[in-house]
Amino acid sequence: MNVVQNFPCFSIVLCMVAGILSTPMKGKDAKRMTLTAVTLVTLMSLVTLLYVVSTGESFVYTMGKYPAPWGNEIRAGILEAMLATVFALVMLCSLLGGMDHIFRTVEEDKVNLYFILADLLLSSLLAIIYTNDLFTGYVFVEINTIAACGMIMIRRSGRSLIAATRYMVMSLIGSGLFLIGLAMLYDITGHLLMENVHESMERLVEAGQYQIPLLVIISVITVGLAIKSGLYPFHSWMPDAYGYSTISSSAILSGLVSKSYIILLIKIFYRVIGFDIIVRSKIVNVLFVFGLIGMVMGSVSAIMAKDIYRMIAYSSIAQIGYVYMGIGLATEAGMVAAVFHILTHAVTKSLLFLAAKGLNDASGHKRIFPALQGAAFRNPLAGAAFLVGSLSMVGIPMLAGFISKLLFAVAALGAGSNKVLITLIVLAVSTILNAVYFLHTVIRIYTPVQTPREFTNIHVRMSMGAVAAVYCLIILNFGMGLMSQPLTDLIQFGIEMFA
Amino acid sequence: MGPNLWANADEVAAVILFGVGFTTLLLHKNMIKKIIGLNIMDTAVYLFLAAMGYVDGRLAPIVKDGITDTQWYINPIPSGLVLTGIVVSVSVTALMLSLTIRLYRKYHSLDLDEILIRMQQEEQR
Fold first, then answer.
1. Is the predicted pLDDT of residue B52 greater than 90, yes or no?
2. B8 lies in which domain range?
3. DSSP summary character for residue A193
4. CA-CA distance, B48 to A194, in Å (whole number)?
5. pLDDT tens digits, one per residue of A280-329
6. Containing domain of residue A490, as a range?
7. B45: distance to nearest CA of chain A, Å?
8. Is residue A242 a contact partner of residue A210, using CB atoms and an 8 Å limit?
9. Which residue in A144, A241, B6, B93 has the fewest CB atoms around it within 10 Å?
């Protein structure tokens, strides 16, 4: 066995150990520990990705001494390794970019707790990405929820407490549904490892047994994970949760946490139940419809939002809609577009949140739009970052967002005839709405101030870490936009590996 | 349908309980009742798992009198899942309770609607 094959397991364990070791530390030491751990995880995931690409096949890593079908397993293919790399990198950038905000808004003796939560969150994200066992998936989904909730509520304002409560209630409903779905799935298949469940599932479908329970399982699991990831009608917790927590938390939650559930859902679709069975069950059409509604409604709410953080949060709802729309097209091209958009959104949304924080700092910590006028002159880097992020979200060529919109449109053309027109129309409408609120904000931050106010002659200097993080995310955005072909090929190859 | 329902009475009960817990968690305004709903919901899943793993007339999956023949014991995996699930639900409950305490200290109410109103009043001041 190659050394690299240990890396997925190492990176999960490393984050957990870093979290445990941070417990007695002071905030500053915990910060160093966490940043080291996240950097190491990024590097290990990258090496894993290169290894998997070079061998051209996925590998399974047995946890403990019991082999399948009893033991627990980790599986790493191209898609898993790629997602792990991007997620760890975005996590690193979000933490670096929001570092001064963490130290400013979190009480001094609780700063180390924030980093413990960040460690736990990353380890559960990686475990959800890599796991080959359904119940392990469930446990880490819960750990993810707990860590995310902690990251919202660690800022002790009333708003963030209520946001955390609502987040928790919706998440628990989602994971309750997911859990009963798993219990029923185990009931009719007798396995928990993804491959074994899939085998039994194929036998059951061939024999025509348990059709109704199977449908119930599919819907319960899908709805559960859709609630957790904030698909349109279940989005009410999102604006508050993203708008009133520490900026790193907002970036991580919107960019990574809600995406991890979608990734688990895609894994279940392909590796557990089988994509043909999912398509035949018509559940994808439900996701498709709600995805489309979400794309429009999220953007409409974003236009009406009164402050910049809530606007970005509402925009996340629209982007989640895009992803589910891609899944709902029920073709491989749609799935590739959805996965590409997950990556796009992860790098763009974290950039937008960091930029918004920079603009906010340059406006006397006021978050309403009038105060932000001319903020791009007071903090040029944040202004540029916001510009890049906005253009990417709107879908201007050369940026990542353009490629995902292009992929969605191409995928829509290949989907069933009754989905083509509606998808293209909604895609166009949503793009225009995106342009309305993002460009409106861009114009406002680049409009010089007429009547100077006390904060308008501040010139903010961002810390080294934040500057590096913002540059890194901007480069990622351009990189994904300019070199999209190899990336989409990799995603396609990764999805084929799933089956 | 009828005989199936009767033969799987435990599972049916579990699913009904799940529904009760689910609606309580979703619809109740009171935080404590929400938490009770959460616990009913999780426990219903454990009942489902335990009922599924149980085989009439067999022993708990702990080796007794040196018998290692699997025919004597029930399936140990659902029991293991229940144990793991209990750990998860305990930690989630603890987190919810701590959130409730914080909310109560700040707003002196357990009713979520009331809390929202008080928060808005506080922000306007």
1. no
2. 2-124
3. B
4. 21
5. 888 999 999 999 999 999 999 999 988 899 999 999 999 999 999 999 99
6. 283-499
7. 6
8. no
9. B6
